[in-house]
């Protein structure tokens, strides 16, 4: 595995690979890698000649109340995880390398951001889309890999690739789960013992809603009510949101049809957990 820190060297390396006819799988991250990232890297390894991992804590996607400086970083650990996962190139640029001067142009995301987690984080996805635009031009990947744990981000990236005509295949990788169904997250360690026992209720509620829809339920309000009732019955967490939208458009529906997402967020004492499922509904 080689480690590259400059844009110029990275682009030269990628151009060489493309000239050789090699396919490039790209996993963009902010580092502090966990099992979810490793799953993305393994998928990229299976499907491409070259696997590229970027580690860059992007200041543009941090809001005024979010501490960029406190975001966890451990590049030595990340390098080892990357090597073990079969990464060929680790792109690890400094902030001054990615943003050497104030931006004269920035990407503004117009759709798919005013709902779910994006509702409380204005400007966050503008920062995500801007850095991904830069990274896509630097890495020139054949395929880019994102986890469905953050389905809203996947929807935004889908729009970015389509609208700007990037010649990139978006690969959405299913959420990695514990044996009891809880979506894997670095936040899970902040759950108390009792909360950890309750947390699988999130995925159980989603599966219960899917089963009801498969049995003919088509009213989004009834689906939300079913999930809320399950969460209130089986957890002491505070419901942040329960939403049902079209996917990836993230538009409200009067009646369920086509591809949909059911997404939830629940606040426990020291952790806010999110989860979702997407599937097709027959009209």
Automatic annotation (TrEMBL):
Assembly, in brief, is: Homodimer.
The entry's other comment says: The reaction proceeds by a bi uni uni bi ping pong mechanism.
Q: Which residues form the active site?
A: 37
Q: Which CDD domains match?
A: PanC (cd00560)
Which residues participate in ATP binding?
30-37, 147-150, 176, 184-187
**Which cell locations does it reside in?**
Cytoplasm
The UniProt gene name for this protein comes to: panC
Q: Which GO terms describe its biological process?
A: pantothenate biosynthetic process
Originating organism: Anoxybacteroides tepidamans
The keyword Nucleotide-binding is assigned to this record? yes
Protein name per UniProt: Pantothenate synthetase
Q: What is its main location?
A: cytoplasm
UniProt keywords, alphabetically: ATP-binding, Cytoplasm, Ligase, Nucleotide-binding, Pantothenate biosynthesis
The superkingdom listed in its UniProt entry is Bacteria
